[in-house]
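Pasting as-is:
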Amino acid sequence: MDLRDYLRIFSRNWLLIVGCTLVGLLIGGGVSIATKPTYTAETQLFVAIQNSGSVQELQQGNTFSQARVQSYVKAVNSPIVLQPVIDNLGLGVTADELSKSVKGTTDVNTVLINIEASDSSAVRSAAIAQGVANSLIDAIEKIEKPKNGGSSPFNVSVIKPAVAPSTPASPNTRLNLILGFVLGVGFGLATAVVRTRLDNKVRGEADVRRVTDSPVLGGISYDANASRQPLLTQTATQSPRAESFRQLRTNLQFANVAKGAKTVLVTSSVPGEGKSTTATNLAIAMAQAGQAVCLIDADLRRPMVSEYLGIDRNAGLTTALIGHADVKELLQPWGEDELFVLASGQIPPNPSELLGSKVMRELLEDLEQVFDTVIIDAPPLLPVTDAAVLSQHVGGVILVVGSQKLRQQELEKSLSALDMVGSDVLGIVLNRLPAKGPDAYSYSYYRNENHESLEKMKIRGTRESLWQSEAASTEDVLASTDARWARPPRTFPTGNSQD
């Protein structure tokens, strides 16, 4: 993963990371509050040789003293030193218990002995430290005293008396908070990475890129009002939702320049990804651009186009396929533009056979002679084979992918199913994208095979575009697309015979 992947992980899981950080801080603060304060007092002793002599003798004596100091440090926690302290201070503990709160250390190559004593009382910790120092001095005097009489060859004295500490040594609230913060952030980041690795849902364009190199034709942000007002004509002209379908129309125009597909099938992998609303609104957007468009509801299992557009679906595609009526008699005009709708008709028991029949292919060929564009709303790919069968009769396929609805494995299976039957995938439309965040679609335009970026275009009723291609000049491309996509409005023939 590169830096952008980590930034995307952080953006997707920032609430989780912040939550773990706050929990870490709370735990650090809770530990500080729950921990009983402990005070540590320190005293320091100096060990010297009593006798004097030559420099060589003094050097040897100093070396001997340093070796002796190591033994004295070990003796700090012995009962011979600690028991007198317990008796004098009336501590009410054993020597072994007291040894856990007393520590003796020495610095390398020195004759200094450091004694630390810890206790819940600052005054008592200083008294214990001083008492252990005095008891150690007495113990050394007794142990080192010659048997034949005389004084000990070592003189141990206190050079730093114990003082009651003003602040507790533990808990270290600042350190606990820092540790809680670091551990919280670390745990949050680790959880976010693991969660992202285990999450195989398609959430944005980056997830699509992991599965396929097919171009992303557009992205449609999630709109809470779309369920009540799904149509493009029901939203404001300059709303983000309306603009996204116009951008999809424009990107599809350039994606289809070389292939020249007049019949486009719109499908998805599983139900609920928004293929029907995408197909319907794409047809409306193309009709608004001056094209003669035919929208076919070929979802013969759960037809939705007629419900969105408010038209009768009892007579439609299936009626024409079984020969009960001519297709011209079944087309229903909709809206003020040249948009004609062929409803699904009665739901048949054998949708796959009807959609894959020769009659269906001939029907599409006839419609292509009359309309600039034919858009087909087909069933999902994975539950049934209808869309895969029908895709063999069309010029191109648009695959709608619902954000957070589809898994990457399901997208891969859908593309494999289309590839198996030789379908031409024009591109992918991301639906239900978040309006903000790392997965919000940036509306970057389609790139050609040479990865030459298209200049940004802005559609406001008239089409002004700039496009560069190594295969053809700008003038040739615009002339070709205008001839195919921007014909003058025409009236659909109403005669009984096929022209």
